[in-house]
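Hello K.,

You asked for the raw outputs rather than the summary table, so here they are, unedited. I folded two proteins back to back in the same session to keep the settings identical. This is the first:
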Amino acid sequence: MNRKAALRLCRSTPCQSIVLAALCVPTVAVVVHAAVPPDDGGDGSQLLMESRTPPARKTVIRAAMPKQESSMTSLKLSIKEFRFDGVSQVSADAIEEVLAPWKERELRFPEFELAVHAVANYLRQHGHPDAEVKLSRALVGGGTVMVAIQGLSSDPTALAMRPAGEETVPRIEVKEFKVSGATLAGKEEFDVLLSESAGKALTMKEIEQAAERVANHLRGKGYPLVQAFLPPQRIEGGVIEIAVQEGVVDGSVGNSGMVVAGGGERVKREVIEEVLVKGVKPGEPLRIADLERAVLLANDMPGIQSVKTTLSPGTEPGSTQVEAKVEESALVSGNVWADNYGSRYTGRERANAQLNLNSPSGHGEQISINAAASTGMESGKVAVQVPIGSDGLKVGASYAQMKLDIGEEVAPLNLSSNTTVASLYASYPLERSSTRNTWLTANADAKHVSNDLSGARNNDRKLQLLTVGGNGNLIDPLDGQIAWSANVAGGALDLSGKPAYQALDASSAQTEGDFAKLNWNLQRTAKVTDELSWQVSGSGMFASKNLDSSEKFQLGGPTGIRAYPIGEGLGDFGWLGSAEVRYALGKTPAGEPQIFSFYDVGQIKQYHTLWTNALTAGQPNSYQLSGWGVGASLTNNDHENLRIMWAQKIGNNPNPTSSGSDSDGTNKSGRIWIVGNILF
């Protein structure tokens, strides 16, 4: 009989468990976040989804899967005969007699082990104390099992020549895999997925890995509750069955499988349920992206503080129940802040306040009132926003007014301005998750700007503007946080309210009439260490013609090139770029301090089209400004924040006023910006 390399079947082969359960939830540790690295700690006893409005919020999903262990004991082998290698000195008939109880029947792996051990014991009791019995390396198939016997003579078999200590395990000849219970992928897809394992002799561990590969493949499609396991089966013809449970939603409970607890005082329970039920489909596999979107949309509603969703076993094996626990916020919220972000001519120091009424009728609407004041400025705004349907669409309307009395050296001119803006707007979340968000937006504005000089109307401008675009944020593959926006606007300017000003415009800038413009913004923030981070940002605008001053791009100010004042660098084309390095100093009794340094640069083109005498001699139409600086901030519990920045010009202003100053009438080489904010 030919000698063959064989595998050792140990006396106590451990059962290898496969990933499965009769219950609904697989082991899962999915962590998704909007702006900060997640903390997935916890006891893992439930699947928990916790969401808050991004950025700087995270959603954590975690679960421990109750496992139904499936092992070698659930597999049955049909044994027709045993063949032996290395038994020239032993009576084959005697061994056949020892194995008689196990022939011509189906054996589970533990029984199969007993058969081999029975042969070993027989040999050791009949003059071969060193005898070892080993399964052939790859032949458990066709009903015939090859058994190699070693240690019967001094003439080593091929098996005895193998390196000492090499450990071997049983293998099953696998012709193909059959996947049952799956609706999320078809046979061809599974055949490709499992092609590297089919047609080979596999260990139990390798068969388990094939099943886990099926589960991971389906989980990667967005269904993390999927389980794949080996059901009890007979192995015939080399076909291994992998069963799949897809974690379907138990629709026998709650509203279409969604049970809502809490809420109902600030936002009506039926309004919350209408949003959350979008995340589940009874009788279908739970898609985590749909559930997360529904949870975040519910959390976006004014009057909702947080939504936590727990998954638990359903009434049927392989099903899951979804329970949402809603925590509501207060009826009134808002913030107050003070800064020196104002114009020198209307008062740098400003006081600001915003008050929100959250869902006063219980339908998820919000009413906001905003007011600001300085020595020469008063402004106010009222806005109403309501949800439409249950998929995140919101529409709103607002009205704002601002009055300015220009002071300082131009005070004798008695120059004043009045601006009103009536707006309609809408937004829709095209994507909503804790790692990627995209909103589509549309705004329709009607502006009216009038300026008076010494009590007489100097100009009267009416502007109609329609803006469409989008904005969003995401976590990139390197764990950086990206925020972006892009908007296209088309409008019309009417100057007929003051014919003299209209005639002046017609002979110069020709801003009246139709126009279009494109605005964009891009920002990326990333951590280097827990303390050190950096941020780069860019923004810009393109216009189709010369624009009214209220629509121009601006370089200077605390959100632009911080070394220059508000109103510096207005133009029809422009771009801004900033780089910032930040270092967190850790927690203190007063809060969390942070220091940072920055560099700002930008370029502007004042006029799309020049006209005669548009510029004075030596005045550039296009120029660049830049500056650098340092700053510090202090944050206390996300409710209080103080921020101070000092910025220094790089070079001189290439477009000074006739007196050699910046646009605010000063010629400072450095500027300080301060803002303090309290949320309630």
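The second followed immediately with the same parameters:
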Amino acid sequence: MSERFEDDDIEFIYWGDGNKPPVKYVEEEVKNERHYRKVYKQSKRNVRKKYVILKREVFNWVKLIACAIFLAFIISNFIIINALVPSSSMEPTIMEGDRMIGFRLAYIFDEVERGDIIIFKYPDDHSQKFVKRVVGMPGEYIEIINGMVYISNSEDEEYKTQLPEDYLTVMPEGNMDKIRIPEGSYFVMGDNRNDSEDSRYWNDQFVSEDEILGEAIFVYWPLWPQVID
């Protein structure tokens, strides 16, 4: 049996047991619970959506960074050489402390020419990289008299020619007996001829084709970029 009574604002109905809550109160609680569940589910969906978006963004950034690292690896190991010149042996063409770029593919489809400035593995220690100018070509005879370089294709003294070296700014000194450059190898020297450890002094005097890493292209630091010639 139910009892009914009225308050100023709400009509309450009790069913038998007076300990049971009002019906309208229960209805409001049910509505609130449904609303909270709806809000909770929507919040979960929003959180899940934000998580998916964040995960996608993180993945895209990781992918971008990985591609950049891979590209940098390919460029630095197969296309260019980034080198620091630690000595004055190539001055004034390349100054001590200059940073320069070399091109690894320079001699894939082209031949090394006299006068080229090359980056190569030091013949006496392949862990070191050197930068010098190509002076003597494969198969030639080379000698130095009073600092001047003489080139010939035979041992006959009549056919030797003094090598023009317009890039030298200081009169070179010293002498070197005539030697023959092996096939597939080059005789290299620094432009600062009086302060350069090069083919004149090494135990293994010549730079082989396999030891050449690339051609020096330009200096990019500390001056404005300048082409190496």
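The CA atoms of residues 76 and 82 lie 7 Å apart.

Happy to rerun anything if the numbers look odd on your end.

Regards,
P.
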